[in-house]
Write a structure and sequence with these properties.
Structural class: alpha+beta
Helix content: 10-25%
Distance between the termini: 17 Å
Shape: elongated
Mean pLDDT: 92
Length: 143
Amino acid sequence: MSPNTPMDKDAKPNDCWLEHRVSYGEVDQMGYLYYGEYLHLFERARGKFIRESGMSYAEVEERGVLFPVREAHVRYRNPARYDELIMIRCWIHEWRKASFYFSYEVWDESRTELKATGTTGHACADKSGKPIRIPDWLRGLFA
């Protein structure tokens, strides 16, 4: 699957959902969720995904592994609006030797209108920032 391919909302990968109500401070002059906020929502969903897998990102870092973002993509489809409850879905869709990709979908509350899709590509690095092979314990954690 390419980093820009959205998954069907009814598929059952190892995913998680983050519920979020769009606040006034997150919208632009038109009352739409500001485009840059989507990456922040992706980060929050990614953090929840990691926690639900059994370990916080802080604990992963304590074990000497970092996930620097190498690339990020967002495709905007339908605007989310002020005070709207949205659902952000997050999962890992691709593993490589020393990197991996998260995918995201942003839906309305009823999960009938797709608002946006996206991906973030992450290197696996040690505390000095040097790329490392993804540890087996980490793959196992997210499996």
